[in-house]
């Protein structure tokens, strides 16, 4: 699989504003925030798109979602609310091909998104 900018962040080859890390997950602030809080939760394992995830990744994807939810609680905005988004391929608006969850918070979200 091709190396992405997120792999470089995992290897600390380029800087990022890292807010959370464990053995499997890294989270850092999005460089172009779409909300007052905009953090990307990524697995350290490189999986290009959700289409490429397999049965072997079930636990990892669960950890990713839980890490985001726990961080939202720890930051104190979970009760007020937030949005978790993952984009897949061109029509989904994916630009970095290493799966990630966008955690957006700090403003009223709208539905449907653009
Ligand atoms: P997506 O379009 O869903 O693939 O999301 C990729 C996200 O990565 C975008 O919101 C970008 O702003 C963000 N991004 C790209 N490069 C960086 C970087 N070096 N540091 C932090 N966020 C980045």
Task: Provide key terms for this protein.
single chain; 114 residues; alpha+beta; HIT family, subunit A; five-stranded antiparallel β-sheet; 3 helices; 5 strands; 21% strand; globular; binds adenosine monophosphate
Describe the structure.
With 114 residues, this protein is an alpha+beta fold. The chain has a single domain, classed as HIT-like (HIT family, subunit A), CATH 3.30.428.10. It contains 3 helices and 5 strands, in the order H-E-E-E-H-E-H-E. A 5-stranded antiparallel sheet has the order 1-2-3-5-4, with helices on one face. It is globular. It starts with a helix and ends in a 9-residue tail after the last strand. The model has no long low-confidence stretch (mean pLDDT 97). Bound molecules: adenosine monophosphate. Adenosine monophosphate is lined by residues 5, 16, 28, 30-32, 40, 87, 93-96.
